[in-house]
Write a structure and sequence with these properties.
The protein has one domain: Beta-grasp domain (Ubiquitin-like (UB roll)). The chain has helices at about 30-35, 40-45, 80-95, and strands at about 5-15, 20-25, 50-55, 55-60, 70-75. The chain is an alpha+beta fold. A five-stranded mixed β-sheet has the order 2-1-5-3-4, covered by helices on one side.
Amino acid sequence: MEAAEIDIEVVHVGVPPAARKIRVAATATVLDAICRSGLVEKAGLDLRACGVGIFGRRVGLGDALRAGDRIEVYEVLRADPKVRRRARARNARSQPPLRR
């Protein structure tokens, strides 16, 4: 008898984004699926630094999977979004208004 398998999707939320639909054993973990997808090698990811989630909810690499799960591998933020937004607002205030 064959081991049960489930279909899942592994997505790298980077630039450019990449997605792979794969089939894994029903007992597979998040780490197993990510490694099997080949995205780690393709994007040169360091999983110790990246965040991982299933449908937008943070999970650990050892968490179990369910059929239809969408694993998302997030890149490390290079700059805090709040800091960048404040800098853009400060720059916009210092610019003269556009004339029409």
